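Methods, example record. To illustrate the input and output format used throughout this study, we show the complete record for Thiamine-binding protein domain-containing protein. The sequence lines were provided to the predictor; the line carrying structure tokens was produced by it.
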Amino acid sequence: MSHVRIRVDFTPLADDDEFVLGQLTDELADDLRDVGEVERVEQPTTDPAAKGVGELALGVVTVLAGVDPGYVQALVDVVLAFLQRHTGRRVHLRVGDIELTIDRPTHGQTDELIRTVRAAIERSRH
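The corresponding predicted structure is encoded as:
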């Protein structure tokens, strides 16, 4: 089965600190493990004198998801559940060069979102 890596991140709120963002990132990563293999994203090092492993970016993960419709539906369901638990946030999905922002969509918009993600996955595979 074919897979594609999808970048998923959420918007922080004004009063979020690193601890809260770390917990939310872990929660999102755990939720997405039901969809596919999840990795935390490292921030590029900007300090030329810094050595070793880069810092993990808060609020950003990638998931290696299958391209069949069941995986896409599961991905969207996980993201929507995360948004329902954390009101006021938005989630951004990046598939190849296509980026989508999700914010409390209606049922019709959810169906369109699933079609858009599926099309983005197909496009990124070619």
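Annotations derived from this record:
The CA atoms of residues 83 and 104 lie 7 Å apart.
The longest helix spans residues 107-124.
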